[in-house]
Structures are given as C-alpha cells and as structure tokens.
Amino acid sequence: MHSLHKSLKKCTIQRSFITYVFMIALLLSAFPLTAFGTTFSNLEIPGYEGGIQDPRIYREMVFITGEPVLLEGDIAISDRAGRVTYNYRNMTNREGTVTMTRNVTLERDVTENGNDQKTETFRLTRFRETITAEGATYQSDERSNQWSQSTVFHAKPAATYFAGNWDGRKYYTINGNEGRVIVETRGSRVGYDQHWSTIDTQTLVHYIDYETGTGNDQVRWQGTAQVQVSHNRTISPHFELNIPTQISFRGAYRLTEQEENVLKYAYDLPRFNGNGGATNQRNLGTGSFTLDTNPTNQMQHIPEMRDINGHYAEEAIRFLASTGAFPTSTTTFGPDLPISRAEFARALTVSLGYVNEATVPERRSSFQRADRQESLFTDVGQDHPYRTYIETAYTKGLMAGVDVDLYIPLGTEPRPESTNVRFYPDATITRAEAMTILIKALGFEHLAPIQQYGTGYLDDTAIPLWARNAAYLSRELGLVRDVSGYFQPQREMTKADTAILLDDFIDYLRTQLRYDYRERVLNY
C-alpha cells in the first residue's frame, strides 16, 4: 500500500485502483444533503381536514349530520413565519341545505436532526367552525377542540420522503345546548417530493358520537367514516411530431406539468326512521371524485446530433438531450463511446432537475477569476466545462470525490486541509458504479435483504460485494432492462447505455414510485 501511496502522488494510478477508490467513495461517503422538499412550490395542499382543491374550488366531505355531504367552496391558505392559517369560505352543498364556515390557525415547530432529517410538528391555536343543516347549527372552537400533527422528513439525493400522523377531537354543540357531537379523528400521511413527481397521500378515520334531546325525544347514534386524499404533481414528457415536412426539425419534446387530486370516502352511518330516530339498520357506502388542474406545457431544446438516427437508443438520447442532460448543439454525439464521470454527472444532475445549461458559468478573463469560488476538486478547474454539474453532483450527494493523499473518501469525516481532492472527471464509469449511484440517490440501500441472497443474474458471482445491493434492487425495482440475464458489472457505460438507464430512471420517478404512494395506498 505504501508503494501505491507513492504512485498516487506521482499520478501513475492504475485503473483498477481508481475504480476501487471510486467505489469506497460511493459506498462510504456521508453525503452532505442540503435541501428538504418540505414545501411544494407548485402544489398547495389543504393539510388540516381531508379535502382537495384546484384553482377554482375546494371540496370536502362532512358526516356529522348522519349523512355523507359533499361541500364545495373556497379555501385560502397562508403560511408565514411558522404560522399556517386556513380560511374556508362559501362552503355549501349543491342543494344549498348545508353550509359551513371554518377558520384554523396552526403553529409549526421544526426540529432538525443532522443534514438529512427534520420533524415538523403543528399545534392548533385558533379554531372556529359552524355548520348549518336542516335547521340545526353545529358549532365548535379551540376551547373544545384538540388537534396535533407531526411529520418527519428524510432527504435523499433524488427525493425527500416523509411520513406523519395526526390526532384530533372536536366537540360540537347543537343549537347551543340542545345536544352535542364528538368527532375523534386518527390520521396518517405519506409522500415524497422530487423533480418529476410530488405526492402527498392522507388517510383520515372519523369516529362520530351524536346525541341530542332527552327522554323519549333523545336521539343517539355512532358512526365511522374514512376519507383518503391524494395530492399529486407530475411532469410528463411528450414528443410532438411536426406535420409539415418542409420544416427545419421533425419534432420536439414538451414537458407537461399537471396536478391530480383524488378523494375517496367510505362511511358506516345509521339509517333514520320517519321521526328522525336512528334504527338498527346501517347506511353503508363509498364514493370518490377528482379535481385536476389545467396542464402547463414547456417546449424543450431541439438536439442537433445526426449520428443517432436509427440507433436503438435514439429516442432516449433525444429526450435526455432535449432537457439539457446531453449537449444539444453538437452534431456528433458518439452514442457508443464510453461516458466519462463528468458527462455522467451532467446527465444525472440535469435529469433530477438540479441544474441546466443556463447555470454553467461563462468563461471570464484572468482578473475576474480571482473573485470566483475555489473549485472543490484539484482536477476540476475553474473553467472546466462540467464544473457546475460535478460540484452539484457532489453537494447534492449523488457522486463523491477522493482525498488521494489520505485515502479518505470525501465526506466520510471532517475534511482536512487537503490540496489533493480529486473527482477524476475523464475516467469512465462502469455499470456497477452507475447502478450503485442511482440506488443511493433513491436512498434505498436498506431495502436489500440482510442475509445472503442471490441477485438473480446469471453472473451473480462476478458482482462485487459493494454493488450487490444495487444490482439486486435495480432488478427488483425494474430500473434496468434485463434481456440477457447478465448484470455485467465491469462493463463500461456508453452514452447510449446512460441515456436508456436515465430514461428508465425518470420513468420510475414519474410513474412507478407514484403508484406505490397513491394507487397502492388508496386501493389497499
């Protein structure tokens, strides 16, 4: 090892050793995660009582009258300095027989745990709600209302995941002193936030205890209702083929962003006789409805490469290039050439929505460069064309560098005053390395079996130990197109391979991950 140390200083590193160091960096680095997806910039979510909205209208189900009632109206949400307010206005059913007003104020406390976790806890500070239905007025305020919600967020390079729950107990008076309704609520939420899709799925179960009147005029019943809501924002790519043939380009990709909001409900309520009394029979039912926003479209760049026509990866390459993941201005792409670490860093960071071509720093004169921030890596200069992508890949926890002098993968412990931290931007990347990066980006390493297991590939014994979890999970999650049955861990990734891999990865983020958080929960 001492001789290797000397050879490293002389920059005569063997590729096998470079690969070894890269893998240590990938597998052991405690990546700095700098951002939480706790606010959904394009997705304003009604988070107090299970309801859904679009820019025009808000809808919610209420059950305290003994019947399922759909209310529609307006909601205004304000989030300032840790105080969140919800104002529900003009809420009524279609017949106009039931109305509701509600004002809610919540205080948010945030606790951070390291770089990648934080907890948000909400407490109720103000509450006013009035429901009128068929001559009865139901009222509740913060003095008779208990409510709390807490959510933990876990930030990973490709997405921030979260899960939480809440408990509530509302006490309503009926016409002042003629009766009361107690509604106890148990709720849970789960979701994620990432570039291609954001989802927040909530499940609320209400336990209703109704009592009014005395003696022979007393009416008492119990019921339950479950409400599930899912708020989803998705970006979908579409290729638009031009009908005219006399045009400079045959077509272009557009990205369509749309919000989909789904509400499902089920109830177990009493049936009432002609005098308004509850019978022994039950009123059981289910229902659902949706609210979708108008989609927004954004046309993408037109790639100019000519050497991909008819290539098996042409569609994936053109799509990735249209987003800026690959250069769009070059006419010679070289799809079957190996991809470098620098090129992979660009393709990956752009695919995850972190940077685009507009963020790359322009070349400046020497007297201007003195004021620019020092590069993180000794082999990635200030004017390196991929510097922005490389440093973004590092700061977002996607790829790591290596402290060559100390054999310490960058990020495993506090960085010393080293002058020889390298990224090796021109080195190629193997299939095992690429899959390990993607699985770590998702934060799914722990999903692999703990005991000894087979990856399912015919060359299972050739897969190195550090890549086995990634190989197994990439197959289980459908992140790879397995046609040969071989993983080929040491095969160098080509640009075409990378395009297909990232195209499938984006599809996973858009659709398959969403399915697990929405359809699987709502249809469980």
TrEMBL record:
The keyword Cytoplasm does not apply. The keyword Repeat applies. The chain crosses the membrane at residues 20-40. Keywords: Membrane, Repeat, Transmembrane, Transmembrane helix. InterPro entries: SLH_dom. Residues 300-362, 373-452, 454-516 form the SLH domain. This is S-layer homology domain-containing protein. It comes from Anoxynatronum buryatiense.
